[in-house]
Design goal:
The protein has about 200 residues and is mainly alpha-helical. Helices cover about 55% and strands about 10% of the residues. Strands 3-4-5 form a three-stranded mixed β-sheet.
Amino acid sequence: MAGTLPKGGVVVLSTSVPPDMAAAVGRRLAERDLLMLDAPVGGGPVRAAEGRMVVMASGPEDAFARAEDLIAAASGTLHRVGTEHGQGSAVKAVEQMLTGIHAAAVAEATAFGVRAGVDPQRLAEILAAGPFHIPSQRPLGIVGADLGHVMDAARRLAVPTPLAASALQLFTMAAAVGLGREGDGALARIFDRLAGNPQEG
């Protein structure tokens, strides 16, 4: 596709890729005299349907100037992260890491609450109504895969990520027992089994 664009054209890279990959794509496009914005998106299907996606973009000022109207029409919030390709993808990776860690923490805490005698449905309602849980709205298999890619990038950067590593194991266990297509709430079933909590269904 890049070969069909005129010189000075702008490519908006909105897929979730590792920061070093986004940087490499930007360099290859620059060799063809093309501009690029490293602009992954977040917000889930609800915001996408409403045109309120969050865009985390980085790239040269010329690329922002030329693509600004397009991004504004397709998103609700634009964060200009920096001028280097890979910076937008790095912020997206941070978001993916926090999503996985947070979902794992909520599952662990929920299993504790159930073990302590709280009705699971009531506990879920209370957590959903408060600031404790921000559901990812994505299947566990996808969240786990995203987290795995982030872990790979962290290893290449020699960044220790013990919490994300623990969360990734939980997502791996969920996939192993057939929960990969379910949402965040299904993670608690892993801890329920370990804690001996009553199982639904």
